[in-house]
Amino acid sequence: MAKRLVIVESPTKARTISRFLGNDFIVESSYGHVRDLPKSKLGVDVENNFAPQYVIPTKARKHVNLLKKVADTADEIILATDEDREGEAIAWHLVTALGLEDRPGDHIRRIVFHEITKTAIDEALKNPRDIDIKRVNAQQARRVLDRLVGYSLSPFLWKKVIRGLSAGRVQSVAVRLIVEREREIQSFRPQEYWTVTAALQKEKDKARKAQSFEAALIKIGDTKLEKFSLADEAAAKAVTDDLENATWQVDSIEKRAVSKKPSPPFTTSTLQQEAFRRLGFSARQTMRTAQQLYEGVELGDEGPTGLITYMRTDSVNLSEESLRAANQFIKKDFGNKYVLSSPRRFKTKSKGAQEAHEAIRPTDPARTPDAVKPHLDRNQFRLYDLIWRRFVATQMAEALFDATAVDIGAKSQKLKAKSYLFRATGQTMKFDGYLAVWPAKFEEMLLPELSKDDTLTLNELKPLQHFTEPPPRFSEASLIKALEQNGIGRPSTYAPTLATIQDRGYVEKDESKRLRPTEVGSIVNDLLVEHFPEIVDIQFTAKMEEELDEIAEGKREWQPVIREFYEPFSKNLAEKYEVVEKQTPVETTEEVCEKCGKPMVIKFGRFGKFLACSGFPECKNAKPLPKEPPKSTGVPCPECKEGEIVERFTRKGRRFFGCSRYPDCKHAMWTDPRNNKQTAQN
Fold first, then answer.
1. Of 25, 232, 322, 559, which has the maximum CB count within 10 A?
2. Exposed, middle or buried, 175 (CB in 10 Å: 0-12/13-18/19+)?
3. Is 384 one of the annotated active-site residues of the chain?
4. Which CATH topology does 268-394 take?
5. In Gene Ontology terms, what is a biological process of this protein (predicted)?
């Protein structure tokens, strides 16, 4: 029997796929990339048309040799890596790393699929194709471009600021957005304005203490109120004084039916945004958990099962099969009134949307969150629940509301203004529709039964003071949205970018989990803005992304794109080494130097932050920063049963989790035990 070798990226994905294949298939994992640029040097031959100098990483060599042996005995090699550019490049690298270049073309095939299900795998095997070298070249161009920027600018930053820094096309733009938002907040000056609301009720119901309702002032005479029309207390008081003896009457009532449609299914960026808002997940945590759900989770007797479609996508497209499955599920579980007469389809609006992937959705809507909950850890369940609800909601009927707007006139012969117009609004839900599965904050605003010309009684007139507020700091969710709207980065880059700018110390989270720049981040940003403006220019970076898309579409060759950028960049970099002064970041503290009485400041050295006297060099007092106690996770240590697992950091800043009784108990792990159901239950 002929042997057919299927290669995927991860062992989890391999286990899930092997369920659907016969005995003539062998499924192996590449364990990620099998070739990459070397870490120890630039790895790009600039003089030889930017040829990448790929190597097999040391940690991958043993496994590559094992794959070679298996490949030598196989009659057919099927490359089933992910369907995006990164997956296409891994497939291409596998051909070279395993020495398959001389194999006949029909012995090496490429298959792609959006989901790991039997139907999808069978369909992919029926429709193999060749490796798409255009997508490979787009990935190579991104990799080479990022290497040229990173390996050229990083030493410059080490020399001019401090060691350990890095720069990159996407990460530097992200830092710039955060720095500029922070300065916008700092320079913001609040502006005062006032509003006037009236608490009213029907006059004939006064004795029965009928429902009181509120109406807001919207018009004085013929002039519609703008935000700053009542600029101060005196202006608001003039209105309330003028209305003391007014009569109140219903001028008009407008009732209308309002419908609300569900949001589109998730893309990578919208999933990251919603997971942050609803679950508090970081972008990195969202993608890690989504990958687990995609590659396969053990579902008891079912074995490893892929629960969602591929999680790196900028498409809101849904397959016809998934639309039919959703329709059947909704009809069965919710009833006919929740079913659409025809499927609801969505159009991708993302700037620079890539290949025609599907949106992120459950592989089977009939597999409800409650059905799989016993097999998932807490984070997996919460994210699957979010994805499942969002998808099912897209194919449910609209939510229906009754909206009412009542305009109320305040008039009197004694009024200085001819009239005042107030408006009260109300809303009631007639039919929940998709909200039955996708809960949203909704507060019914009930109004009493009113008729035109009804006379009303004023219970209270409320002048309210307000101040404009500065724009909020970016959250991970809103930063991803800003990057996507500006065409910066792609689905595969959002989470790594956010992780990098925090790991490098350019950005930190405040107490509300919002992003603020550090002193180092601000200094590096200002240096790049002044001396390397193209690196942090939003339009320039977006244009580069568009050019990478054109390479993937076969419209451009990749080397000229790199050359157009690199030649002026390299020339500018050489000049800047001579003209840019060294800048040392400093953070103020409230601590006083015990030797000279001057303020202590936080400085940055090659081993991190430390306290130093601001009187340097006259006073050379310096000491390490006081260590913060490790944060508790609340999870008991599964090894000693006496301590608890706490969050710690290695010397290089990598987070890990260990027992609070260290060194008596040396239990440690890289993964957060709060995400591990079994550890948490021990």
1. 322
2. buried
3. no
4. Topoisomerase I; domain 4 (1.10.290)
5. DNA topological change
